[in-house]
Amino acid sequence: MTWDVALILGIDGLANGAVYLLAGLGLVLIFSVTRVVFVPFGDVAAFAALSLAAFEAGRLPPTVGLVLTLAALAVVAECVSLARRGELSKIPRAILGWGLLPALPCALAWAVAGQQQLPHALLIVSAILLVVPITPLVARVALQPIADASVLVLLIASLALHFLLSGMGLLFFGPEGSRTAPLVDGGVDLGGFMVTGQVLLMVVSALVLSGLFFLAFERTLIGKSLRATSVNRVGARLVGIRPARTALLAYTFASLLAGLIGVLIAPAMTMYYDSGFLIGLKAFVAAIIGGLVSYPLTALGALAVGVVEAFGSFWSGALKDVIVFSLLIPVLVLRSALQHHSEEEPEEIEA
Amino acid sequence: MTGRKKFAPRLVALLAGALLGAPLLAADLKVGFITSLSGPVSALGIPYHKGVQAAEAYKSVIAGRKVQLIVLDDASDPTVAARNARKLVTEDKVDVLIGTSGVPGALAIAAVARETHTPLISPTPVTVPADDNGWTVTVSQPFPLMVAAVVEKMKASGVKTVAFIGFSDALGDLALSSLQQAAEPAGIKVVANERYARGDSSVAGQVLKIVAAKPDAVFAGNSGTPGALPYLGLAERGYKGQIYGTHGLIQADFVRVAGASANGLLVPSGPVMVADQLPADNPVRKIALEYRAAYQKTHGAAPVDAFSAYTFDAWLLFADAATRIGNKAEPGTPQYRQALHDAIAQTRELTGTHGVFNFKPNDPYGLDKRSAVVIRLDQAQWKLAP
User: Fold this and answer.
1) Cα–Cα distance measured from residue A214 to residue A56, given in angstroms and rounded to the nearest whole number
2) What percentage of chain B reaches a pLDDT higher than 90?
3) Who contacts B353 (Cβ-Cβ below 8 Å, separation ≥6)?
4) Closest residue of B to A277, CA-based?
5) Do A272 and B259 touch (CB under 8 A)?
6) Which end of chain A is more exposed for a tag (fewer CB within 10 A), N or C?
7) Which of A176, A275, A318 lies nearest to residue B201, judging by beta carbons?
8) Backbone dihedral region of B373: left (phi > 0), alpha (psi from -120 to 50 degrees) or beta?
9) A35-80 per-position pLDDT tens digit
């Protein structure tokens, strides 16, 4: 291996790592607020990429059907639970919030699709907005009713959700893959070799977004209430924060993040209805490195996963994923060795 | 489903047949066609169905008998394919089976064909066990034959070393062994063997290794949209050598995903893809153009892939064999199926859209070198390579 090969692999790895970084942040965000390891995260990203591809092909993205189906389910779930509690007066509000709000991006998509000479940025924004309702809706239908169950039950439920979503992906998008037009052309010459603009864009957006994340959590009230919920749900409740509301916020933020990831990687990778799973899985490795709580460690872990993956594919293409997932073993051994087993936070099953 | 749709034209044909005297009220021939109209293999199954519809319109009376086509969907599931085959043979008493789009499904049907002694004409490549006794034949080209055509082009353009990159599955293995088989006698060295999985998002590492080996050409053993990855990677690294691929790439979705990176790509194909560019003395040209016309008439658009032509060929093969049987046996009986089996094995110099068929007993493949041409992807259009 020569230096330039190592450099190329390193940059390729950083670009991949940037994607895992964003996905890892989303996973940690959801987990710390709701204790759900949100497996279908990558699927949402893939849907964003495929939606953008559909826009570019001048078609209405099939995501619209997906969102509307989920919205209908969520409205039914919400109305049933309200009726059972006898709070019939809240039903119109529920229909507005769960039925009409998710339909807004669909309306935008419908207006944008097939129009000629629209700025590419508008297509990108529509594609991202279109997938934003997916995670909150899915969570409302399947995860909120069991929000107080154990971590394991939540994990199994979210795994089942992944299969549901990828099945729907096959139904709505079909088996063939798509690539979208590059977001930026050209590149930067770094002393003899090119770093493509796409790679730079991926790395820069990862940095900017993690910076925004940091600011949002440190400086805003919403961020603080999210953090409070993740530290202690009962305590947060006592000071007037509603866990269901913060969970909804966390899901929405994560969905937005997934949408951004989707449009960022779509020009660099051929996306299929099921390519999101591997992205989510590798981001999960990164999140594990961060112990599913620490944002900075997750970020470092994500970059490590990306670089290991790039070098792994050079040494042995067939064993690439094996190498990446083998990273988990030393990390877990190290973490459990370093952790003093005080278990200060026993599983909270609050009333 | 399709049976009902075809009812009206069939009624007209029946009346016309009756008016023309209907010699001795000959019994109908029955074709059982199984394909994947839904599921993951439907990308092949739907063109197969369109091809057979065109064929039915092209030749609906064989040896004075009307042909009844029964279409069943196997939903890309080999178990359903086998069940459909059994139903077609025992309940509908078909004389011949045609199907299906996936190799596992075709193998499942072949087992039923063998057991019930019904000839099966498969549009997909199949490998049958030694005791098949010729009940299964295929109208597709054997893989090594196609790769050999590509290697011939490599040799002609002075390629000395070739790098291989392919799927890490059976298709990749088959492509590599076919390449090695053909390259060695041609004096071409295979200098790299890189693999990736269909679901991989990047082949940057593998491509770097290939570029470092400095091969004269790169040959990829893959198919469909995941097959675009190596070409995209090579283009990104600025690889300037000639790129080659297999016929699994002749597909609109591949061209869409690979974009400019696959410009100049050379792949083998059946001659039908470039029928209008074939020299006038090519035997395939006439029938391939007739197929295009029949397809255009049935579906209102010209065919864009080579797959629908396979089922068209399957129909031609059946028609040719049935013509030679004539009235020697009564359709719907075991005697007729045996006669059809024998007649297919005696097919000589039958021109189809993909080449010229000559079947031998106990060999499911009937095509020879004339069935492979090399085509070139030129600005998203497939052109016959000079």
Assistant:
1) 33
2) 49
3) B270, B271, B272, B275, B284, B287, B288, B291, B309, B312, B313, B316
4) B199
5) no
6) C
7) A275
8) beta
9) 889 999 999 999 999 999 999 888 888 899 889 999 999 999 999 9
From residue A88, how far is each of A79, A81, A82, A91, A144 by CA, in Å?
A: 8, 10, 6, 5, 20
CB B17 within 8 A of CB B27: no
Q: Identity (one letter) of the amino acid at B47?
A: P
Q: Which residues of A touch B195 (CB under 8 A)?
A: 317-318
> Distance between CA atoms of B262 and B224, rounded to whole angstroms?
13
> What one-letter code names the amino acid at A185?
D
Flag if A5 and B212 touch (Cβ within 8 Å): yes
ipTM reported for the complex, 2 dp: 0.70
Using alpha carbons only, give the angle A212, A217, A218 rounded to the nearest 5 degrees.
100
Residue of A nearest to B229 (CA): A270
In the structure encoding, which two tokens stand for residue B125, read together? Answer: 């490549």
Report chain B's terminal Cα–Cα distance, integer Å.
45
Largest CA distance in chain A: 71
Give the span between the Cα atoms of B273 and B141, in whole angstroms: 14
Q: To which residue do tokens 């230096």 refer? A: A3
CA atoms within 13 A on the CB side of A286: 34
Count other C-beta atoms under 10 Å from residue A75's C-beta.
Answer: 22
Which pTM was predicted?
Answer: 0.74
Distance set, CA A207 to CA A18, A21, A184, B54 (Å): 8, 9, 17, 57
3-state DSSP call for residue B234?
helix
Which residue's structure tokens are 């929405």?
A252
